[in-house]
Specification:
230 residues, mainly beta, outer membrane lipoprotein receptor (LolB), chain A
C-alpha cells in the first residue's frame, strides 16, 4: 500500500504539468482577401486591411490581452471572470465590452454545425487537424496541432463567441491557423508567426475606472459601452 501511495506521489506532479493550460505569447500574421465585390459590407476593425500582426498575451487562467503591431494604441483585454472582452483606445474615453457568452447567429436561431475534418494539414513544423464551423453567414476553420499549446477547454466553458469553447472541446489546443470566411466575400486568415512560453503579467489586465453609458444600453445584445471616469 505504501508503494502504491509512493507511485502516485511521484507521478502526480507530472499529471499537473500536462493538465496546465498554455501560458505565453502567440503572434499571428493577418492576411485579408477580398473574394468578390464586397462594397456592400461594412468592414469593421477585424477586416482592416492595414493590420500586419496581432499578438496575444495569454494567461493559464484564460485571461488574455491582444495588441496589433501597426496600432499599439488599440488593445483588447479579455477578463475571463467577467466573460467580457474590453476594447480600449489611447485617444478615446469610450470602452466597448463584448459579452463572449453570446453567439449572435445562434441567438437568432441559426445554430452552426461543427465538425472535425479528417485531413492532415502541414504548416512548417506543425501537423494539424482542423475544426470547421459553419454558420448561416460564414465558415471558420481552426487548425491545431495537438502537440502544441494545450489548454483546458473548461476554462472557456461560457465562451460562445465564434464558437470558441466548442472548438476547444474538440482540439484542447490553441490554434496554429484560423481562417474566417464571411459570406464568400471576405476571408481573414491568422497564421502563427512566433510563440514563447512565459509568465503572464497580470498588470496587463488593469482597466481604468469606467461607468456604463445609459443611453447605449441594449443597442446591441452582445455589447456594452462605457466611458472612462475623469
Amino acid at each position: 500500500m505504501k508503494i502504491n501511495y509512493l507511485i502516485i506521489a511521484l507521478f502526480l506532479p507530472l499529471f499537473n504539468i500536462f493538465a496546465q493550460s498554455f501560458e505565453g505569447t502567440l503572434s499571428y500574421k493577418i492576411d485579408v482577401t477580398i473574394l468578390n465585390d464586397s462594397s456592400h459590407l461594412t468592414l469593421n476593425n477585424e477586416f482592416s486591411l492595414n493590420k500586419d500582426t496581432i499578438t496575444y498575451f495569454c494567461s493559464a487562467q484564460g485571461d488574455y490581452v491582444s495588441i496589433c503591431s501597426n496600432n499599439s494604441n488599440f488593445m483588447d483585454i479579455f477578463l475571463n471572470e467577467k466573460k467580457k472582452k474590453y476594447s480600449l483606445e489611447n485617444h478615446s474615453n469610450i470602452i466597448t465590452a463584448l459579452d463572449v457568452t453570446i453567439d449572435l447567429e445562434e441567438l437568432y436561431g441559426f445554430k452552426p454545425t461543427i465538425e472535425l475534418l479528417d485531413s492532415i494539414y502541414v504548416f512548417g513544423q506543425f501537423k494539424c487537424k482542423a475544426v470547421q464551423i459553419k454558420w448561416e453567414n460564414g465558415l471558420f476553420k481552426y487548425y491545431f496541432d495537438n502537440h502544441y499549446f494545450q489548454i483546458d477547454p473548461e476554462i472557456y466553458q461560457d465562451y460562445n463567441y465564434d464558437q470558441w469553447y466548442n472548438y476547444l472541446k474538440i482540439s484542447k489546443c490553441l490554434p496554429i491557423i484560423i481562417e474566417k470566411n464571411y459570406n464568400d466575400a471576405v476571408t481573414v486568415q491568422y497564421s502563427l508567426l512566433l510563440y514563447t512560453e512565459d509568465k503572464f503579467n497580470n498588470d496587463f489586465l488593469l482597466l481604468p475606472q469606467i461607468e456604463e453609458i445609459d443611453e447605449l444600453k441594449g443597442v446591441f445584445p452582445n455589447k456594452e459601452f462605457y466611458i472612462v471616469k475623469e
